[in-house]
Structures are given as structure tokens and as C-alpha cells.
Amino acid sequence: MKVVTILGSPRKNSTSTAIAERFNALAKAEGATVSTYFLNEMDYQGCQGCMACKTVREDCALKDGLTPLFEEMHRADVVVMATPVYFGDVSAQFKGFIDRVYSLAKPDFPTNPEPSRLPKGKKSLFIISQGASAQEHTEIVDRYDRYFTLAGFEERRVIRDCDRVDPMVIEPSKDSLSAVENAARDFTQAMATA
Q1: Whole-structure pTM over 0.70, yes or no?
Q2: Which residues are registered as beta bridge partners of 82?
């Protein structure tokens, strides 16, 4: 199994990163290969709205730090995406990446039953950490799930680590750790039987 992990926190030592790294460790223990991208240290631009990916190209026209990441996403079985919630949405680093995910959708994605340029069968794990309660910011999950569907992730899981009283204390909740263990087990078993 090949895993690509995208870390959207500006801090390397963060709750969302700790949860993603726990998934990576469990997947590696089952024989997976893992590539990790820390967005805050990468050199990339946000989407330029040029529409080249819908008119004259099959990929993003920008060639920068995200180019090898998108190439790896094509080969990956599982894509792990982790971000904190800042001021009611994902981090700026993660949003810049998500805008570029638009290039993965085919030109006729609104009506195409297979809207993605990614090969079939991919799984995603979306990890969110937030200071607010679980009742707040639920719209983030719905909004980004639509994007992940268009990007071609056939199985999509979400782990939300909420009620982070002190964002500088890196201690994922027991529920989050249990959910990540379940995801790692299920994903590796599914890949082993595929």
C-alpha cells in the first residue's frame, strides 16, 4: 500500500500532524510506503484561475512544489490530509493546496459520473483538529467532502479532534487515536485483499 500524507498545519508539532503520523506509523507497520509533504515548507502558488487544466492540459499548468505531490497522488492508494481549523476553516496552507486539487477534475466534472483524473479505487483520510466543540464547524467536513469526491476518492473518512483547550498541547483525544487505528487497519486490510 502506498500512502501520501499532506500536512496542512503551519506547525510541525501539532495535533493534526500527530494524528496523521500515528496513521503513517500503523500503515508502515503493515508494510506500507509513506511519503509526507509538509505544506508550510513547500514552495507553491495557489490556483491562478487560468483554466488550462480544463481547456488545453490534463494537469495543472503550474510547475512548482505541488507538482511531485500530485504525481504521487496518482500512484497512491491512500491520501491522508491533515489540517487545523483556523478562524472557521482549514489553514491557509491547506486551502492553497485544495484550490490546486481542481486540476484533478475532468473538464466535464459537474456531469461526468467519473469526474476525476485520478485512477479509481483511492481512499482518503481527512484529519481536522479544532479548539471548538464537535458541534461547530461541521460544514467544513461537508464542503471538503464534495471536493474529495470530485477528486476521485471512492472511500473517504474523517477524523475530527475537537475541544482543543490549549492548541500548544499536542495530545490527540482517545477517540481520534481509536479512529485512526480503525482507519489504518481497514485500509491496509482492504488493500491486502484487492
Answers
A1: yes
A2: 7, 127
